[in-house]
């Protein structure tokens, strides 16, 4: 059986080789297929970046047109799926709904997950990327008691999503171009992050040859946790608590340092980034810009900045190299765009989808991939006798 080494949280064990995303945590570098995140954030759109991650190259114009057309063609969900929404309570967390619905897609499209059939696989991928928006928007509409708004073929990816979220039958939602670019930018920044918890989940589930929808449904659930994507919702809830508490940021910094308190500064710290999170840097600038453009003054942004300043001056955070991560400022932008707090992690999931797909595909295309099966170090009794119930004390 050989020697088994113990590395419970994968602190320094690589689970795979991958050619998708390059990350240098010491230098704060993040590149998709070699292209710096800063360049993509400035110049690309989400759909193009999704193509880059999944297919390995920036698309030519015909390639991009074909991919965009597939997304447009597959934006509706099956009418029967709309009934599922009636089964959830209106208070259901949209991440639970999203995962259930994505898993349900495998009941409607069970056949088309053969990695060797490129044409069918392209459609499966497009279906998932396109329908996830529709599902997310429908989950929101259901939760507020409004009718579902169908996708519109003349709208681009982000604009179509905003339309399904915020239009009502009596009034179309006209998407402000600044808002559309902000959504594109945020989705791009979330699009991949190599072997994070949810992506590793997608790979592990997929390694048993589970289909793409099932694997991604599992990834969505991993993302939901507050130490992962769920942190973006927690950040706003924390900032709101600080606001209710009179804006006393120092108190919360002290609380986060207290090991008995169980409280952490949400949106702070990262397993890999030990200097700064390049995504957080861009998001912070964007938060300032978009709020100014929309003429919104959000007191939570001021509290967030004060909290960041107070934490970065504190030796506890300096010594442990804890900096704001991608989730720290993103929620402030989502709020300004009109999203309710419980939708923030859903937005992260829509953004992360191309990464999950790219990793699932990379793994499936590698014929040497084996099922993921971690080992353990057993600490229980090695052998005991069975005791009949009447003799147990
Ligand atoms: N507030 C207070 N202390 C912290 C924090 C924090 N946010 N993060 C880490 N620490 C402390 C931790 O208590 C430990 O201290 P000590 O050495 O005294 O025991 C030390 O810093 C190292 O932390 P760790 O928990 O061993 O680090 P990790 O790599 O296992 O965890 C993390 C990384 C992101 C889960 C963690 O920093 C955290 O819980 N942050 C808050 C949640 C959050 O913002 N998550 C989003 C992560 S980025 C995007 C994403 O993945 O979705």
Automatic annotation (TrEMBL):
Q: In which pathway does it act?
A: Carbohydrate metabolism; tricarboxylic acid cycle; isocitrate from oxaloacetate: step 1/2
Q: Which InterPro entries match?
A: Citrate_synth-like_lrg_a-sub, Citrate_synth-like_sm_a-sub, Citrate_synthase, Citrate_synthase_AS, Citrate_synthase_bac-typ, Citrate_synthase_sf, Citrate_synthase_typ-I
Provide a GO CC annotation, any one. cytoplasm
Keyword Transferase part of the UniProt annotation: yes
Q: Which UniProt keywords apply?
A: Transferase, Tricarboxylic acid cycle
Gene3D superfamilies in alphabetical order: 2.20.28.60, Citrate Synthase, domain 1, Cytochrome P450-Terp, domain 2
Superkingdom of the organism of origin: Bacteria
The family database entries (PROSITE patterns) matched by this protein are listed as:
CITRATE_SYNTHASE
Q: Recall the GO molecular function terms of this protein's record.
A: citrate synthase activity
Catalytic positions are 270, 327
Q: Which reaction does it catalyse?
A: oxaloacetate + acetyl-CoA + H2O = citrate + CoA + H(+)
Q: Name one GO biological process term.
A: tricarboxylic acid cycle
Q: By its UniProt entry, which Pfam families does this protein fall under?
A: Citrate_synt
Matches recorded under NCBIfam families: cit_synth_I, PRK05614.1
The record's similarity note reads: Belongs to the citrate synthase family.
Full protein name: Citrate synthase
């Amino acid at each position: 059986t050989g020697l088994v080494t113990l590395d419970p949280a994968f602190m320094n064990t690589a689970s795979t080789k991958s050619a998708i995303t390059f990350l240098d945590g010491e230098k704060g570098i993040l590149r998709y297929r070699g292209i710096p995140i800063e360049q993509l954030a400035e110049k690309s759109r989400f759909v193009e970046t999704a193509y880059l991650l999944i297919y390995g190259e920036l698309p030519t114009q015909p390639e991009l047109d074909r991919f965009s057309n597939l997304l447009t063609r597959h934006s509706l969900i099956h009418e029967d799926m709309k009934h599922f929404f009636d089964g959830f309570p209106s208070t259901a967390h949209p991440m639970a709904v999203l995962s259930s619905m994505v898993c349900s897609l495998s009941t409607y499209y069970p056949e088309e997950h053969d990695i060797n059939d490129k044409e069918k696989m392209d459609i499966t991928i497009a279906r998932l990327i396109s329908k996830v928006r529709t599902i997310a928007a429908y989950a929101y509409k259901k939760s507020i008691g409004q009718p579902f708004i169908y996708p519109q073929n003349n709208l681009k990816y982000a604009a179509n999503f905003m339309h399904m979220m915020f239009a009502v039958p009596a009034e179309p939602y006209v998407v402000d171009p600044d808002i559309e670019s902000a959504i594109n930018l945020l989705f791009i920044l979330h699009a991949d992050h190599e072997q994070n918890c949810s992506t590793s989940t997608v790979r592990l589930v997929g390694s048993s040859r589970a289909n793409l929808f099932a694997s991604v449904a599992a990834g969505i659930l991993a993302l939901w946790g507050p130490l992962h994507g769920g942190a973006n919702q927690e950040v706003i809830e924390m900032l709101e608590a600080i606001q209710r508490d009179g804006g006393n940021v120092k108190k919360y910094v002290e609380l986060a340092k207290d090991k008995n308190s169980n409280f952490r500064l949400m949106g702070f710290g990262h397993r890999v980034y030990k200097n700064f999170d390049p995504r957080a840097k861009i998001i912070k600038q964007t938060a300032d810009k978009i709020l100014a453009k929309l003429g919104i003054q959000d007191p939570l942004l001021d509290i967030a900045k004060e909290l960041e300043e107070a934490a970065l001056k504190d030796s506890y955070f300096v010594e442990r190299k804890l900096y704001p991560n991608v989730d720290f400022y993103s929620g402030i932008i989502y709020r300004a765009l009109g999203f309710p707090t419980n939708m923030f992690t859903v937005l992260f999931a829509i953004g992360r989808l191309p990464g999950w797909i790219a990793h699932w595909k990379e793994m499936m295309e590698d014929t040497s991939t084996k099922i993921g099966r971690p080992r353990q170090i057993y600490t229980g009794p090695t052998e005991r006798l069975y005791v009949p119930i009447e003799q147990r004390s």
